[in-house]
# Entry
Amino acid sequence: MERPNAWKNYNDADKKAVFQFAEAYREFLSKCKTERECVTELKKKAMDAGFIDMKEIIEKGTKLKAGDRVFADNHGKNLALYIIGTDDLECGMNILGAHIDSPRLDLKQNPLYEDTEMALLDTHYYGGIKKYQWVTVPLAIHGVVAKKDGTQIHVSIGEAPSDPVFGVSDLLIHLSADLMNKKASEVVEGEALDVLVGNMPLLTNDEDDKKTKDAVKANILLILKEQYDFDEEDFLSAELEVVPAGPARDYGFDRSMIMGYGHDDRSCAYPSFAAMLEIDTPKKTAVCLLVDKEEIGSVGPTGMRSRFFENMTAEVMHACGNYSELRLRRALQNSKVLSSDVSAAFDPNYPSVTEKKNAAYFGHGIVFNKYTGARGKSGSNDANAEYVAEVRKIMDDNGVFFQTAELGKVDVGGGGTIAYILGNYNMQVIDCGVAVLNMHAPWEIISKADLYEAKKGYIAFLNHA
Ligand code: MN
Ligand code: MN
# Structure
């Protein structure tokens, strides 16, 4: 049983649409490298498209009706969008879920130090990474510094061609005799992922200053004060994320792919969001949930395990004039979900980790994973066969190219997503998403056709599930 290659079935108009959508996504990916940047950008796009902030709806006591579009921003790191359907909310929602956090290096709370006249920032990595991939690549610093007076400083250094970049050093091959014999998991230790940020001591004419201890660090602090207006103590209340520097790029002679940072899971989040902008008033209320903290277990107020979505759905129901606790329970239980996260694309360099009949291939469309998990499907949301049948009919009826896959061979590894958390409400949930090469590396790769088919699949689901 083989699934068709989307590229082989596209006409010129299809190809044009594929490349156009990919270009919009490439720009988004280049611009939005943190969960906060994704929320800020998508919120702006949503407002331009007529979505209203739930804060305003709640404050003014505005009534919502079919066709109304609203969004809720959770601490600037998690976004929920709703399009009110013609059916009562109690009948359930059609939900697209994806995450907008990606693996990276986070600055520690007390990060800046000087060693042998080099200034460095200490980090703690976020999410599952092969640490040796993060050395010697140009890195940028994105994030916010929250000051005691309530103001916020937004930082993004390393993206403009005129900006400096940063990086983690690696040991030269000439002196790596011992290092080369280490296991890959130990060759670069987590505590060694410190980012080099300066080497020039602060110099003044004052003789006392020449004796300043840690003059390189002092110079960096001066630059931070002058250019960004924050002090060393302000690092205590900052979220600064070290990410690969530079834009996402077309990949391959044929430009059929995109290399970028954070395809996991923005290659699902962006088309989910785009689908919301493209649909008319649906029968079932359409929802797009973009969550944070998936890479570290979906915990905390902005992760999928937070009550934020449930609470906000209660608010939306209330604004529709038909809230009750029981109706809310029914709305949740009657919902259907495409829980989107990236899949492992088949890699000809590493064929042994996948089982070919049940692997995801570039260009074969959106990937459905009936289950994820590891070692005997452990920890997985195993979608009901009846629901898989419904979803596959929707895809077929709407000409969406799709494939099915497992994440690798049995017992080779595995992974989890947010699917099981929505499953806890007794919703019908299936994992799906875009296939990725180099998953969790600084630069990941996707196929433009798969990105496009994901969006088509999401639109079909919102309109027909
Ligand atoms: Mn993911
Ligand atoms: Mn991931």
User: Anything to note?
Assistant: The longest strand covers residues 104-115.
